[in-house]
Amino acid sequence: MDQIRIAQPPLSGGLPETLGWAFDAFEATRFAARNCEDRVPELFATFMMSAGAAVEGRNAVVDAPSFPLGRRAAPRSELPAGGATDVEQIADELTALTEVLAERLAQAAVVARSAGDRSACDNAAESAHRIRRLLARASNETAAR
Amino acid sequence: MRPLLGDFLASASEQIDAVTRFNGPLPEHATRAVVWQLDQLVAIVTRFADRFMVDDEADRRQALDRQVHPVRDAWDRLRRAAGNLHMAAGTLEPDGNEYPHPAAGRVAAAVNYLAAGQDLLQTHFAPGPFGSSMGQSEWAPVIVSAPVTTALLGEFTSVGVRAAGWAERLLMTPRADGALPAQAGAAVTAACQSLRLADVATRTAAKQHLSTAADRTMVHVIPAHVEPARYPPGSGETVPGLCMGLAHTAERLRFLAPAATRRADEADAGSSVCWQRTAHGAAISGHCSEQILRSLADRAGQLGLPNVVEEGLRQAAEATARSWMAWRAAAGAWDSLTTGTNTRLTPAAAEIGDLALWVGRLAYTGPAWAPGRDHANALRDPIGLAAGPQDLVNVLAAVHQANHTLAGLAAHDREAVGKAVAYRCLYVPTRLLPARYDVPRRYALTPKRMADALLSTYDAAVSASSEAASALDKGGGRRECPIKGPGHDSRGWQARHAARAQLAQHVG
Question: How many CB atoms lie within 10 A of CB B266?
Fold first, then answer.
């Protein structure tokens, strides 16, 4: 994660920690996507839809009963200004991040005890999948890298 | 394809044309049936007048005499004719055989077509408070405008007067069997005379209201206000196919959007998810439309069209750019706000993506373009978008439909979001608040300044979207284009143009 500054997913801990991290990850994704919307016209729709999915995923996480409440300000992501090259790199990093996010949330859904947590994790995982699908390179392009 | 009023008027007219070719004597049972059907037919024409001629000139009408208000005169004559025919029909005993004669069957068919036409007009109105009715389509104010109502009355009356003229000729022929009792005969004669006078009054009214050929044409292209079927884009559509799909989807969204705003159940009126998705779809559609308009402007120059065309298109592109930026701001305003856990989508929010796909596939070269990095394609060449002036007109017409729809969506969403703000249904996830706030809940009520800022973004979207739609109305492109394309010739397109002109003239 060179351009998207976000803490690593918790290696251990319970559902609240995972949900807290997922919130921050979605928020970082939203912030990065919004900042990239204008940079490449051909990717305007891609980043705009990604930001929307990130908001939906983040809000789904908040609705989980196990979501940690109380004092915790969301981290303010920062992105370096840059041109098309940076956008490609950011998109790659967001793809990687949301892949991990989807995986962690799917795992959390499996172990969650309450139906509310399961449903929230499933919805959030779906949002993460959507972002990953939007931002992933074409398969042949990926193979060529 | 949706039925048009003209389809029913033409069919009714065909039936009357066919029946007037019948000159033979009518048997007694057919005489009765013809009178009954005439009664029905004139009742429908009168019902039309009763339903649609109640305009806001009522007071003025009462103050002036018939010479200056032929519409009122026509209306009175129609009622008198209806009364006479009803009386004539009442004097005739039924024989249990409803349409025993082909001539009566033809008149009955004409009655059904006119009734269907009237039902079609009715689809543009919904019940309002205190027994009133409210327009629920962009056609409604056009239908009740004086020139169009007069033209409509003329169409309905002409069918009635032709049928009555034929019937009078046959029924009044002296017959040995005395098929029509004297009282009924006198009533039919009086009714026919009233109908003829109503016809004359209607023609005079048409002149007074300056009903033009365009008004009469418009009457025929009034569509039923029914929900167009969903038409999601397939892969590999041609440019004309994309234009058609775009126009169709834009029209469907215009139908779906008010439905959500009217929902009595506030929970179904929308949510932050709906409004943000709509804003995203609108911004993406507008972004693509701007690219298309810039390409069309380039193409207009290449084709040697008048400078005003190119200039108009560039101005429209600028206005469209302001529109999508305003929509993007509205979408961004939702980033920190939510209405809660309701994520059910309104129909318009669920299908706004279709519009974005149609416009995107028109703007970009990829036949299966969709938002996504793997679908990022180059823009279409101007020549690929519009080979000739006719193609340019068609593409422009489709983009205009999209802009018109986005203007409507902006207004509807502004209204719904305004309600959410008024009912204090907006929340902020507390985790997004600065660290000095320690709120042990998921959400906090949205501060007033954030709610006001949200509404401001919608006000800007409403204004910019309307300006983008107007820019295409005013833009020199379409009017100055020397060739009228299929989009321009299509009935629906002509009608919408006529409707807008009528709205400006009669409603504004």
Answer: 12
Distance CA B478, CA B474 (A): 9
- The contacts of residue A37 (CB under 8 Å, 6+ apart) are A44, A47, A48, A51, B328
Q: How far apart are CA B404 and CA B375, in angstroms?
A: 27
Angle at A65 between CA A62 and CA A69, to 5 degrees: 60
- Please check whether residue B371 touches A, CB under 8 A: yes
Instruction: State the pLDDT confidence band at A82, using cuts at 50, 70 and 90.
Output: very low
Evaluate if residue B507 carries a pLDDT over 50: no
User: What CA–CA distance (Å, rounded) separates A121 from A128?
Assistant: 10
Q: Residues with Cβ < 8 Å from A116, sequence gap 6 or more?
A: A63, A64, A65
Kindly compute the dihedral angle of the four CA atoms of residues A50, A53, A58, A59, in this order, to the nearest 10 degrees. 150
Closest CA to B419 of B281, B253, B260, B283: B260
Mutate to test the interface with A, among B327, B342, B343, B373 (most CBs of A within 10 A): B373
* Domain coordinates in residue numbering, chain B: 5-220, 239-507
Residue B299 has pLDDT above 90, yes or no: yes
Look at A37 and B277 and tell me if their CB atoms are within 8 Å: no
Shortest distance, CA A65 to any CA of chain B (angstroms): 9
**Mean pLDDT over each residue of chain B, to the nearest integer:** 83
- Rounded to whole angstroms, the Cα distance separating A4 from A97 reads 9
Per-residue pLDDT reduced to its tens digit, B29-61: 778 888 888 999 999 999 988 887 755 454 444
Inter-chain CB proximity A56 and B343 less than 8 Å: yes
> Residue B338: what are its φ and ψ, rounded to 5°?
-150, 160
**CB neighbour class for B128 (10 Å; exposed up to 12, middle 13-18, buried from 19):** exposed
Q: Is the pLDDT of residue A46 over 70?
A: yes
- A143 to chain B nearest CA, in Å? 13
Q: Do B291 and A59 lie within an 8 Å CB cutoff?
A: no
Cβ–Cβ contact B373 with A under 8 A: yes
Q: What is the C-alpha radius of gyration for chain B, rounded to an integer number of angstroms?
A: 28
pLDDT of residue B473: 76
Question: What residue spans of chain A are helical by DSSP H?
Answer: 15-36, 44-62, 84-111, 115-135, 139-144
Place of tokens 């009763």: B50
Tokens coding B421 = 């703000």
In this model, does residue A142 exceed pLDDT 50? no
Q: How far is CA B248 from the centre of its chain?
A: 13
| pLDDT beyond 50 at B490 | no
Is the pLDDT at B5 greater than 90? The verdict is yes
Domains in chain A, ordered, with CATH?
15-70+81-144 (1.20.1260)
Can you tell me the distance from the alpha carbon of A25 to that of A99, in angstroms, rounded to the nearest whole number? 11
Instruction: Name the nearest CA neighbour of B492 among B222, B304, B160.
Output: B222
